[in-house]
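Feature request, filed as a ticket because there's no other form

It would be nice if the structure record came with a short human-readable summary line next to the tokens. Right now we just get the raw output. Example of a typical job, pasted below so the devs can see what we mean:
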Amino acid sequence: MQDLDVNGITDAVIEQMATTPDPRMREIMEAAVRHLHAFARDVNLTPDEWLKGIAFMTAVGQACTPYRQEFILLSDVLGLSRLVNVMHDTKGREATGTETSLLGPFFREDAPKVELGGSIARIAGGPEIQIFGQVTDTNGQGVPHAVIDVWQTDAEGQYDLQAHDPSVMDMRGQLRCDDAGRFHFRTVKPIGYSIPMDGPVGELVRQQHRHGFRPAHIHVLVAAPGHRELVTALYFGDDAHVDSDTVFGVSQSLVITARDDLPDAPVQGLPGIRYDFTLSRDADTEGGRVGSDPSRLMPAG
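Raw output as currently delivered:
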């Protein structure tokens, strides 16, 4: 029997876990224990505070449903989702590849097919814009027939899963680029929106006096054989919260502005955005997306 002090308990726990057969699991759990114990010592955590923390995590779990994943939302607002993505980018993305952004919880498989030039807005109305560009490799060569999934909120700031029955798909679509990797489609300009504030994570955000808003954005997933899948988003630069995204998803290279004077716009007279996506070669098949089964969804978006 050991008499454990505030430092000895950490070593005792790690020693007891040393028989873990999976080396990666052993590495992660040892680091988790060291950091958690160090955190408790650093803030001099009290039993009452720890019980409140347990109650909070319990409430986060209880808020989860088949269409709401409160733990993803917690990861997002703490910046952990972004951190994991940035580390994954650093590991596998070539410097010239398009930056990634959060997948969010509203991606859905089997989005409706949209012909080039078509609209992803089948129900929603609002000011229309066009988005066009080219998918290239890191040498600037077009990637033929790359597949692009796009999804976004409507002009009221809602995803289809929020505005309609789950069987309805709107403001999302899948396009196939032409022989040169070119694409263009029409959509409704989205607006920014608040993350769900009716649960424990929303209450945490309120207690921190944070605004809880995401800037207007369009999610994009680009895939092509032999290339690394790209998960990113385009953020509208005229949104008031583009510099203070609650889930830290915005990068400068992903900020866009609709313009009326683009000479190469497929539809003249319609506000347009040109954005070219660059795919890295598939050097790593490990893992792809944080929260990569998010058709049961909700939080940041």
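Something like this underneath would help us a lot:
Residues 1-45 form one domain.
The helical segments are 8-16, 23-43, 47-62, 70-77, 80-92, 160-163, 200-207.
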